[in-house]
Amino acid sequence: MPQLRVAVVGAGIAGLVLAAALRRAGIDCHVYEQAPHLTEVGAGVQLAPNATRLLHRLGLRDRLRAVAVAPGAIEMRRFDDATLLQRTPLGDVCHRRFGAPYYTVHRADLQAGLLSVVAADRVHLGARLVAVTQGGDEARLHLADGATVAADLVVGADGIHSVVREQIVTDAPRYSGQTIYRGLVPAHRVPFLLADPAVRLWFGPDKHVVSYPVSAGRQVSFGATVPAADWREESWTARGDPAALAAAYAGWHPDVTRLIAAADRVSRWALHDRDGINRLGAGRVVVIGDAAHPMLPFQAQGANQAVEDAVVLARCLAEAGPAGLAAAVRRYEEVRLPRVTELQRRSRANARTFHLGDGDAQRRRDTAAQLTSGLDQHEWLFAYDADHATTTVGSS
Ligand SMILES: Cc1cc2nc3c(=O)[nH]c(=O)nc-3n(C[C@H](O)[C@H](O)[C@H](O)COP(=O)(O)OP(=O)(O)OC[C@H]3O[C@@H](n4cnc5c(N)ncnc54)[C@H](O)[C@@H]3O)c2cc1C
Q1: DSSP H/E element including 240
Q2: Which end of the chain offers a freer environment for a tag, N or C, measured as fewer CB atoms within 10 Å?
């Protein structure tokens, strides 16, 4: 039986997890990444049990335990007096219930872990895709240096500005009107946030802040939204102005203003969105992660869903075998679309509810938040096991 040739575009979380999952399934793949070096910078990411159980099985259990933090709870508070609106227990309670931890990690630590479980000679750096063509019984990558690569299947893991996605749909990222400042603060500067390590959110009119410890508790990562009509820069490394950020949050609770003041540097990022699509593949091309379903970060699930996508796609390919490529892509789409569409919807809805000004709608939100404290509301999200989804989703 001939080996399937899989070409993955992008070595972000989606692309690297796919490379690891395909390797586990005995399927060879090559990853083409535009960046000359893989250096994830300055930001944290929340990993929920729906992703950590998969990362553990791919060989990252010990590595994650060493570098991550297992926060005790997610706490949502008011922006001015820090009244607690909702507390979701995490820590051991969450770990026991879902059989996997909720972690907060530095992106660079996650990336280093993923690189340790993929074959280094399969990741090609400085390889920027400019076009994909399909014809006969193969697809072709056309790289910026003039090289072409033939494959049985091209997987677009190339993020929100995906070139591969153009094979499936003609659309473009849409600026959300929100920017997010991100910073990392040495833990000793914000001890008031570390006595009880948690994911903390503060909601106020037009804005919110989220913070959590990373790097085994040595640093605190935060993100603070600021609406802006005219900011278009989209890069983890675009410099933000700490003074402008501090001014935007003047009058917020001292826990927020002291956290922001403790950051020497901040980055600023324009948040983009795209509408959902009803196909994730076309011919010999398929998309995963942000290339498939970018979502505003207000549900903290974009990376988690990228991990799930990659595991499901690898399973579909392994189960269908080289002769069943089209069926594998259809099955991947069938398994993944309902879930990622719902998460895109919820992320967008949170963009409104997180930023309500004081009034009736805000009071209704706060009452609902108190009534839905606890882990039950997360059961559908955290209990999902992508390793079994190909046999359980839609097969009854
Ligand atoms: C502020 C913020 C906070 C977030 N917080 C969380 C969180 O807490 N939890 C969570 O789950 N998610 C979070 N997310 C979402 C998460 O970051 C993304 O969903 C995730 O990084 C998507 O991974 P990806 O691999 O699909 O895409 P990306 O990370 O964008 O990776 C795409 C890769 O493809 C490469 N590439 C792009 N174009 C080309 C090309 N033409 N040729 C070759 N290579 C190319 C890029 O260089 C990059 O390496 C957050 C997002 C933001 C903006």
Answers
A1: strand 239-240
A2: C
